[in-house]
Amino acid sequence: MLNAISGIIYTAVLAVVFAYWEVQIEGQHGHAAKLPCWRKEDGWIVKKIFGGTPITGYHIGMNLFLILAFHFVFIFTDWTFLKEVLIAGLIFEFLILEDFSWFLINPHYGFKRFKKEHIHWHRRWMGPVPSSYVYFGILAVILLTLGSQSLYL
C-alpha cells in the first residue's frame, strides 16, 4: 500500500507545481482566455464531452503532454491493464488537484473567489465545486482502488 500512497502524494505535489507554472502562463485570465491559441466555445463536443467548458489548443497540448508523461513508466516496466487503470486514476487525481491549486495559488483568485460567479469557464457546478471535480473524483477513487492491485501482482 505504501507505493500507492506514495504515487498519490507525488501526483498531488506534481499537480501543485504544474498549477504554479500554469498561473505564470495564464495570469488572471483562466482557461487560456488571453493566450494565442484556438478555442471552441460551443457545439456538441463542448456540451456533451467537456461539460460546457471550452476546448483550447493550449489545454489539448497540456493534456497530451500529461498523458505521455504519466505513461513514461512503461519504458521501464511492462504494460498491464491494471497499471493502465492506476495511471488513469492518477491522471484524474492530477486534473482535479491541479485545477483547484490554480485557484489557490493565483493571487487574482484564492479560496475566497473560488465560486461559480468568478469562474466563467467552469459552467456546471455541484454545490461548491465544478461538476468535473465530482465526476473525476469518483473516477479517480475507483480507478486508484482497482489499479493499486497492480502493485501487488
Walk me through what this model shows.
With 153 residues, this protein is mainly alpha-helical. It has one domain (2-152). Helix content is 57%, strand content 5%. It is built from 5 helices and 4 strands; from the N terminus they run H-E-H-E-H-H-E-E-H. The chain has helices at 2-26, 44-49, 57-70, 81-105, 131-147, and strands at residues 39-40, 55-56, 125-126, 129-130. Strands 1-2 form a two-stranded antiparallel sheet. A two-stranded antiparallel sheet has the order 3-4. A hairpin with a 2-residue loop joins strand 3 (125-126) and strand 4. Helix 1 crosses helix 4 (81-105) and helix 4 (81-105) runs antiparallel to helix 5. The longest helix has 25 residues, at 2-26. The radius of gyration is 16 Å and the shape is globular. The mean pLDDT is 91.
Distance between the termini: 12 Å
* Alpha carbon gyration radius: 16 Å
Q: How are helices and strands ordered from N to C?
A: HEHEHHEEH
The count of β-strands is 4
Share of residues in strands:
5-15%
Q: Order of strands side by side in the largest beta sheet?
A: 1-2
* Number of self-contained structural domains: 1
Percent in helix: 55-70%
Given helix and strand content, the structural type is mainly alpha
Taken from the alpha-carbon principal axes, the silhouette is globular
Which spans of ≥5 residues are poorly predicted at pLDDT below 50?
none
SS summary, helix count? 5
Report the mean per-residue pLDDT as an integer. 91
Q: Main beta sheet: strand number and arrangement?
A: 2 strands, antiparallel
